[in-house]
C-alpha cells in the first residue's frame, strides 16, 4: 500500500476542487443561501435534471434551521410542511392538530445530504457580493471567499454564469439588495423596490412566503424568508413549513419554464 504523502493530499484537493469549480462556472441555476428554502430548491432542481449549485457564505449550510427557536434545536411545521419532511424521510412528531415538531439537526443534515446526492453542488464559504446583468436580465453571480469579505482584504472576486438565480439569502435579501443598489432593474413589488420585512405574524407569513416566491426580476426567483422581506410580508419565527414549500415552489417555477 502506498504511504500517505502530504504533497499528494494537497494536489488531490486542489485538482478535484478546480475540476468541480470549473464545471460550475456555467450552470442552469445558481442558488444563493443554504438555508432550508435554498436546500429544498436545490434538491428539487437536481431531481428535475437541472445543473444546480448553491453558494453559501458560512462554513456550514442550514442557515437558521440548526438553532430551531432561540437555540432550542426543534422546529415546528404545519400539515403541509410535514408532507415535505415526509418526502425527505425526516421524522416528525405530532404536538397538536396541525403542529408537528422535528429535530433541527435531522432536518438540515437529511435535506442537505439528499440535495447533494441528487446532484446539487454546494460551494460553502463563498459569498455572493454582486451580480452580472446583461440587457436587464441577471445572468450571473460575482463571488468571493467569505474570509476575504470578513477581513476586507483588497482582492477582486470571480464570476459564474447561470440561466436562473434564486435569492434564498433569508432576512437580508442580499442578492436583491445589490441589484437594487447597482442596476436599473425594476422589481415586481408594489413600489418596484424592496419593500422590507414586517414584524412577526406566523399565520399570515407562512401563507405569504409561498405567494411571494416568484420571479422578482428577469432571471431571479426569490425564495424563503427573502421572499417575504422583498414583498413586505411579515416574519414567522421558527415555523419552517413555509420555507420548505417555498424552496419547492421556486424549483417548480424554474422547472416549468
Ligand atoms: O436565513 P436562512 O435560513 O434562509 P431561509 O431559507 O430560511 C429562513 C429561516 O431559517 C428562518 C425563518 C424561519 O421560518 O424565518 O430565518 O429563508 O438562510 C440564508 C442563508 O443564506 C446565506 C446565509 O449565510 C444563510 O445560511 N447568505 C446570506 N447572504 C449570502 C449568503 C451571500 N451574500 N452569499 C452567500 N450566502
Helix content estimate: 25-40%
Radius of gyration: 18 Å
Structural class: alpha/beta
Low-confidence stretches: none
In CATH, the homologous superfamily goes by the name FAD/NAD(P)-binding domain
The name of the CATH topology is FAD/NAD(P)-binding domain
Number of strands: 11
> How far apart lie the N and C ends?
52 Å
Report the portion of residues in β strands. Answer: 15-25%
Number of helices: 9
Order of helices and strands: HEHEEHEEHEEEHEHHEEHH
Biggest sheet details: 8 strands, mixed
Bound molecules: ligand 48F
Note the overall shape: globular
At the first level of CATH, the class is Alpha Beta
Short description:
With about 260 residues, the chain is of the alpha/beta class. The protein has helices at about 5-25, 35-45, 80-90, 105-120, 145-150, 175-180, 200-210, 225-230, 240-255, and strands at about 25-30, 50-55, 75, 95, 100-105, 120-125, 125-135, 135-145, 160-165, 215, 220.
